[in-house]
Structure formats: C-alpha cells, structure tokens
Design brief:
The chain has 597 residues and is α+β, with helices and mostly antiparallel strands. The chain is 42% helix and 19% strand.
Length: 597
C-alpha cells in the first residue's frame, strides 16, 4: 500500500528553503577552491586555452552573431522580462489550452519558477561578494559587469529560468510537444555558457559553476513547491469563482411603460459574432424574454455603446445586456449609471476584468444564464477627468503611465489572436521606460510627492490570471483603491513580481479593504480614497478600463457609490452567507455595503 504524506510532512517542505544558505556557502567554498589551491592544477591550469581557442574564430560573422544572441538570452533584462511573461502565461494563458497545457491557471508552477529565478540570483550575488576572480585576459565582446567571473551569472540565471520551464513542461505538458519543448529548453543554458566563453567573458569552470548554482536551486525549490503535488485542473466553462463582497439584492425599480419587458442587447460585432448572438438570443428566450421583446444594438468604434442612449430616451427597458469587453461595458455604464436599470454582463472581450471580479463565468452563454437566474446588485463606478479628458465613468480601473503605454501599443492583430497575452508582449517594450515625478492628493489632504512608473486607480482589484494588484478593492466599498508602482532595477521587478505572485497563491487576500502603505520593498504603495488627484511632471499615456485615452499630465477620479445595478448569480450570495456563518457572523449583517476609508 502506498503511504500518503500527512500534513506534517507537507508543512516541513518550506523548511527546505533553508538549504539555500547552505548552497551559497558551498558555492563560496567551491569558488575559493577554484581561485586558490586548485588554480594551479589540471584541468584549471589549462582552461585559459579554451576562450583563447574560441576567440580565434571570431572572424566568422555568423558565429559572432549567434553568440551575441545566445548571450542575450541569459542577460538580466531578458531573464526578468521572460520570467514575468512566463508567470503571467502560467497564471492565465493556459486557459486556451496552449501546447496542451491544462485549461487552468498553474499557480504552484508559477510560484516555483518565480522563487527559482529569484533564489538563484540571490545566491549568485552572495557568492560573487566572497569570491574574486578576474575574467579571461583577452578582448571581450561584451561589457564586463563589476562582479566576479565565478560563477557565470548568465548561465545560472538561464538554467533557473529555462530549466525551470523545462521542469514545468515535463510535468504538465501533454501530447507530442512535451519531449521537444523540454529538450529545447534544457539546451539553452549550456548554449549560453558556450557563447559566454566564446565572447571572452568566462572560463569553462565559471560556466560549470553557473550550471551547478542553477541546478541546485531548481532541485531545492522544486522539492518545496512541486514534489508530491498534482494538478487537478477543472474546466473553466460555467464556473463561478469566488465573488466579491456584495450587498444583499434589492428589487430594481419596475420598468415603466412604454418598454414593459423590453431587453436592450448592446453587441460588439467582433467580440460577439452572429453565431454567438443567436445562442444568446436563445438563452434570453429561455428566461421569458422573447425575440419580439429583444432589441439588439450594434456598437461602432465611434459609438462604443451604439444607440443605447437614444433607446433609453424612447423607452425604459427591464434589462440591458452588454455583450463585449470592458470597453463596451464602460460605455454602457456611462449611460446606465443612476438610472436603476440593471445590466447583465456577457464577457466577449480580451480582458473581461469586470466579469472576473464579479465572479461571473467567462463563457458568454454561461454568464448570461447565471446572471438572468440571479438578482441585481448595486455596485460603485468611478468617474474621471483630466486635461484633454472629458468627465467619463469607468467600472474597472483607470491608469496613467506604464499600464496605459502597454494598452496603447498592444497590436490589434495580436489581441485578436492571443487575447490579453498581447498586452504582455507590449509591456516588454516598456520595461525600461523611466519613472516620472508626480504629486498625488488623496481626499483633499496635502499632496504627496512621488516617483512612479504607473498609477492605477481601481474600482476592482484583480487582473488576469487572478493577479490581485489591488487586493483590498471591492466594487461596493464606496471608495477607490490606488496603487503607485515603481520597481527600482531588476531586483525591484523581481521583488514586486514575487510579492504579487505570493498573493495569487493565497485564497484570500491579506490586505484588508481600506488599507494603505508600502509593500515589496517600496515598489508598491497603496492608498484608498473617495477622490484622488494625480499630477505628473510631463505628459503620460492614460487608459480607462483597458482603452487608451489621450496623453496628459493630470488624472482626477472620484467614486459614485452604488450608481450601477448589475445582474449577478445567486451562487455568489449563497457562498458568502455560508462563509459568514462559519465565521460566526450574520449574513444579513455583513451584507451591508462597506464604506471603509
């Protein structure tokens, strides 16, 4: 009989991370041995000939170009950028079944990769502080960083990243892709090492040290996060995720005549093609809204809500259904806020962040089915204005800086093919954008001077892949949550990524609603406010709910509490009641909206 590991054994696994200091000490010992007593013995005394022999072939342009490309694969900028891309892909992109990956977020695998890359870097920096080894005495093709030649940082980082991805591929990929992808990833680190020797940056023993450092890190971190764990993916179709804290449902104002039981359906023609529209018609008909009572409105680039405003002026419908992405929902909310007419959200866009944060299924038919069977709830909306930006509402987030540049430069063609992953590729082009000086004024208090790469003002807080950028944000809290993002250097990016990823691994966020302060070594600074004013020293890109807005220096946002009624599944309210009873609270009591500062 196979013996199962108990909770004590599982709880002891994190203690294995204490082996990382031991690994660093051993690497320091090996480095001192390489640069000390063993330096004058074979094979170390002869290894100087390897880079010199390879340098004789530098007159071949093809070899030099290939070595430059391979060396770049292990550079800090590329490793950090690809690590962030891989983390986001593991958290969300597998939903489309890429290369046979399970159709669910691989959170444990993402944490494994992030910790492996960060831990390898930490050990490398510590070892180079105690080991001094000059680089080969010959012309070098790359700029030499001020660190010891032992161990190779490029090789160690590439093994942590590409080797970590190979481990994930071997464990989680299905079908004929698995051996090919795994082998290709494992070949990258030694190829990087060979390129570094060719370019005069390292001795062979430095490459061996980098491989040893990366391999030891992967062994320790995989034992903590992957050993003994099996993925149990569940289909995403029709799934109701844990929803936000929402007030108890209240009956919406009755539809006045003329209009009766009329349903206005706002449809994005690309997000909701004809075949999907027909299936949604059938769902509406099954809930008593006949084809005769349905009035369909097509959106255009110039009119993202179509003729919704004109239709509302002519009749008061019983319901408005928005079939599109966050941009379509924002345009509909602009018209519906304050009217009391409920809105049903049908996610048909790239990000669908509002649907994700409201706990709706991401399948359009399942979302509409669940919403029509549920109740209407009031949620907050944000309102924003600025220089060159007329007052307008948003339901998800407004941003200025890095995130807006990412949205602005995302290729429409890639968005149609890759979905939100197109934003990740766009973000890579802006990783080195400088931060900007700004002042932020919260609820009329004295302005604070800061530097930041971006400022995000959120009505909700979770991004794709369940990434809680604003973990305290709730759509019924009566306030907005704000984050200033300013990582300093590669270490700051890794610290911020690891901090955000650790939140994903926790079922419930640790940051309570209304909390403020700094996290991740100052890379993230949080505020809550009913009104916030941001002024930048120079014009910056701006975005509203994933749509680019005109560049400017100012962004002023305030909250309109409970201004929009949204149809939500009853499952969310039932689950919340059960959780509150488990904590000894009354569902009726906790159903009241939070108005925390």
């Amino acid at each position: 009989m196979k013996r199962r590991r108990g909770p004590a054994a599982r709880g002891a696994r994190p203690l294995l991370l204490l082996l990382l200091p031991v690994q660093a000490a051993l690497m320091i010992g090996v480095g001192r041995l390489v640069t000390g007593p063993a330096a004058h013995h074979w094979p170390l005394e002869a290894e100087d000939g390897a880079p010199r022999a390879l340098a004789e072939h530098r007159d071949a342009p093809v070899l030099t170009a290939v070595s430059e490309w391979l060396s770049a694969l292990g550079s800090t900028q590329v490793v950090v950028g690809l690590t962030i891309v891989a983390l986001l892909a593991l958290l969300g992109l597998p939903r489309i079944g890429l290369l046979g990956l399970p159709r669910t977020a691989l959170r444990r695998e993402a944490l494994f990769l992030a910790v492996a890359v960060a831990a390898q870097s930490a050990v490398f920096v510590l070892v180079t502080a105690f080991v001094e080894r000059p680089r080969p005495d010959l012309p070098r093709l790359d700029a030499a960083p001020p660190t010891s030649s032992f161990p190779s940082g490029h090789v160690g980082a590439s093994l942590a990243l590409y080797g970590g991805l190979a481990v994930i591929a071997a464990l989680r990929l299905r079908g004929p892709w698995r051996p090919a992808v795994t082998a290709a990833l494992l070949l990258v680190p030694p190829a990087v090492g060979l390129a570094r020797v060719y370019r005069g940056m390292h001795f062979p023993s430095d490459v061996a040290g980098g491989l040893l450092n990366g391999a030891a890190t992967l062994l320790i971190v995989s034992a903590v996060f992957l050993h003994g764990h099996r993925s149990a993916p569940r289909p995403d179709r029709g799934r109701l995720s844990d929803g936000p804290h929402l007030p108890a449902p209240a009956p919406a104002p009755a539809a006045d005549s003329p209009g009766g039981r009329t349903v206005l359906v706002v449809r994005h023609p690309f997000g909701c093609p004809d075949d999907l529209a027909e299936r949604l018609r059938t769902v509406l008909d099954g809930h008593g809204h006949t084809h005769r009572e349905q009035r369909w409105i097509r959106t255009t680039a110039e009119r993202p809500a179509g003729a919704l405003a004109e239709e509302l002026a002519a009749r008061r419908p019983a319901l408005v259904v928005a079939c599109g992405g966050d941009g379509t929902l924002r345009a509909c909310a602009e018209v519906l806020a304050g009217t009391g007419i409920p809105l049903a959200v049908v996610p048909c866009g790239t990000g669908n962040l509002l649907a994700r944060n409201l706990g709706l299924p991401l399948d359009p038919e399942a979302a509409l089915e669940a919403s029509l069977a549920g109740d209407s709830h009031p949620i907050d909306v944000g309102r924003v204005r600025g220089d060159g930006l007329a007052p307008t509402r948003f339901t998800v987030m407004a941003g200025i800086g890095f995130d807006a540049a990412m949205v602005k430069d995302a290729s429409p063609r890639l968005k149609s093919r890759l979905g939100w992953a197109a934003y990740v590729l766009s973000a890579l082009r802006h990783l080195r954008d400088p931060s900007v000086r700004l002042t932020i004024r919260v609820d009329g208090v004295r302005p604070r001077r800061r530097r930041a790469r971006m400022v995000v003002i959120g009505n909700v807080g979770t991004l794709q892949g369940g990434l809680p950028l604003l973990p305290g944000a709730r759509p019924d809290s009566g306030h907005l949550d704000v984050v200033l993002f300013d990582p300093r250097g590669p270490g700051g990016w890794l610290a911020a990524a690891a901090h955000l990823l650790s939140r994903v691994m926790r079922r419930h966020p640790t940051t309570p609603a209304g909390a403020a302060g700094t996290e991740a070594g100052g890379a993230l600074e949080y505020f809550t406010a009913t009104r916030v004013d941001v002024r930048c020293a120079r014009p910056q890109p701006r975005e509203l709910d994933g749509d680019p807005a005109a560049d400017g220096t100012r962004l002023t946002a305030w909250v309109e509490p409970g201004a929009l009624r949204v149809q939500l599944p009853r499952t969310t309210a039932v689950r919340e009641g059960e959780e509150e009873e488990q904590h000894g609270n009354s569902p009726t009591r906790t159903a009241a909206p939070q108005r925390a500062r």
